[in-house]
Amino acid sequence: MSATVLLAVVFVLSLTLVTWLLNQLPQRMIVGFDATHRHSPLDGIRGILALSVFTHHFFKNYFFQMTGHWQSPTIDFFTNLGSVPVSLFFLITGYLFFGKLKQPRMDWQYLYRSRLQRIVPLYLFLGICIVAIYFTQQHPPLPLSEWQQWTLRWLSFNNQSLKDFYAWPLVAGAAWTLLYEWGFYFSLPLLFVLAHPKQLSQWQNIAMLMISLPVLYYVFTHTIIKLYGLFLLAFFTVWLEDFFKNVLAKFPTLISIALCLLTLFTLFETSAYSYGQMLLCGLLFCFIANGFTYFGVLYQQGLKVLGELSYSLYLTHGLVMYVWFNLLHLHDFSQSMTAYVWTYPLVLVFVVMFAVIGYNYIEKPLMHRPNSRVLSP
């Protein structure tokens, strides 16, 4: 068995085992996870997506350690373990907020405050970790102007390495998607007035348009425009909700088998962020958001817990890998890739443990709790 096939098998088995172990947790330990109180396939799918991205970056990390370059794998399956989850994360965000755009009024202050409190604290913590590790590596001191430039780039989600310190692997490259998320958030005032033209007379909506348009210009000039199509594809999930629910209700087994095969095709036979892959992800998501559960798998309690941890898992797994392999040197890379693959389960345990810490002590205390006005993805 090749090392790449072994990693795919270890990933599936580890995901199954982690889910099973989390399923065994007593109720008193999981009551604090909001996702376990909801009945939505989206909570379960987010757990799978976050661990898929970790696996994608775990694979890339091996070649980074060997070559010094953080680059995409040449194997479509492992590349798509990154691109397909990111695509679905974008679709989830679009779906949650398109649902809100149907309302005739928006509380913009609440929306953006909740986004800041949901996303920024853990991201700032990651930035502090980068600075701390920079100083532990005995790099030459930087002038104040360099620190100011890096801080400005980091706060604008256009994160860059610190001078000669190649920090991209420390975040596993995952933070790039946050700039797209904010691009979508600042497109909401424009989308809102397009959906509700009469609301353009309200001063709050005019003010938000004036604020958001310059931000959109900045974001669009620093990102790939076609990827915003993933957010927009979620519109069909909301608009055709009854259609997809009816199809699932009429042909549950047939549609479920077809969607499982379509998932495998998307992972193995499409190119990352191609228009074909984006459309297939959009189609899959239309069914998932409207009740498709992969034969009940997405309702597993363990996956819901992982789904609640998904942001911490997504943002901090690179930090755990960097500490493990670059600071503590807990693996000898002169060995074969197969030996590296066998470290996956143990590294995964620490990734999940660190995500629990990040969720409980950084995310949750500072997160604006969701209420009836805005859903928190």
From TrEMBL:
Pfam family, one: Acyl_transf_3
Membrane spanning residue stretches: 6-23, 77-98, 119-137, 165-194, 215-239, 251-268, 280-299, 311-328, 340-362
Alphabetic keyword roster: Membrane, Transmembrane, Transmembrane helix
Annotated Acyltransferase domain residues: 42-357
Domain of life (superkingdom): Bacteria
The UniProt record lists the keyword Transmembrane helix: yes
Protein name, entry field: Acyltransferase 3 domain-containing protein
Native source species: Enhydrobacter aerosaccus
